[in-house]
Amino acid sequence: MNKQKRAWLSVTLILAIALVLSACGSKTNNSNGAGNAAANNASSNNAASGDSSSVDTLKGKKIALIMQFNQGTFSAQYVDGVKKQVEKFGGKVTVLASDNDLNKMVSNLDTAINQKYDGILLDHGNADALTSGVNKAVAAHIPVVAFDSGLSVEGVTSLAQNDQMLADKSLEALAKDAGGKGNIVKVWVAGFPPMESRQITYASFLKKYPDIKEIAQFGDASQPQLDAQTRMEAILKQYPEKGSITAVWAAWDEFAKGVTNAIKQAGRTEIKVYGIDMSDEDLALIQDPTSPWVAAAGADPSSIGQVQVRYLYQKLHGDATDATVQIEPVFVSRDALPTDKKLTTADLGEYVQGWGKSEQGNTDYLKELEQAVGK
User: How far apart, in whole angstroms, are the C-alpha atoms of residue 48 and residue 275?
Assistant: First the structure.
């Protein structure tokens, strides 16, 4: 009987010790959990307020800009906008151009991931070519913001001009000036997300204006300006009579420059050119009273670069950014521009409402970062 009592007391003592230890462990875990939650909340509050320690972590970032192609003044001004904004944030940009070769662009993306850049900007390309590499970047915790790439990848912000609005503004101006009738030439190329979007509007345009007839179309992205000039020269020989061609709609400013050269050299300036995109070079041609290029729809390429960088730095800051961001275009016609002085895109905003510096994507902490870097 004594043995049984002693055994029972031993078991009771062991159970009591186990319960005490379990309670202590539970209190320790709860304490750690509360501490982690408090730390997370403090971190979130610091990020939201843009405190100095949060801003300091954004300095010195290495950014890769991976471009499908970098031809023309639009691309040059876009790159300038990217570089200047990153420099204002205390970072450095490396441009990896792909010479209009999607395989090379994919390789450049892999290079940026393997070299552990802090952030990646994409310019053009398409979803089929880039999605796998972008997923790899996201898995490596490298933020990505794409421009005109047609991407739909979770965690990636895709920036684009409102391409259907670009097409609509330029085409409606053509229809108005032509009186809703005439023969037109379309310069466009398939395979690029912005071009495909512009084509949707173009198809609707032809249905809306049945008396406007497309008599020819062409387009090559490899040497866009030279190819457009050569092909337009051939079409002008095919339609030599004045009045046989009313206008040309060019879905890219490089195309517009090429056809403008051909028309001007042939002395056929009764043919009007309507384009998309706007750069300093484009603006000079539109202002020239002897040029057939009379109007274009576009957004400031430098501002596009700045906005794209801001969204990337939001991601570097830990913010949740929108999946898609649209840049609203404006319409620029010769009629709205002065005749007594030459303009650049820097002062175009004085004459065209909506053009110029954009605050899109800016935040209080990014403004604070610029000020800190500028000191």
Answer: 42
